[in-house]
Q: What sequence folds into this?
């Protein structure tokens, strides 16, 4: 029962969700960096990672 309560509390907690979003963004940046190092065009990297081209150029 405690696990279920914790789950619902985390799902409703905006700070918990922000952490999840930040983790996904960090993962996208990591993937974009690897793709850029492989010479994949910025437009394709932006398409697959959903990151803005300006941010990818900075990597």
A:
């Amino acid at each position: 029962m405690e696990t279920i309560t914790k789950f619902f509390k985390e799902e409703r907690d905006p700070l918990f969700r922000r952490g999840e979003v930040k983790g996904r963004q960090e993962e996208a940046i990591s993937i974009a960096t690897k793709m850029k190092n492989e010479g994949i065009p910025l437009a394709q990297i932006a398409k697959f990672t959903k990151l803005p081209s300006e941010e990818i150029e900075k990597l």
Notes: The chain has one domain: 2-58. Residues 2-58 form one domain. The helical segments are 2-12, 14-37, 42-49, 53-58. The first helix runs from residue 2 to 12.
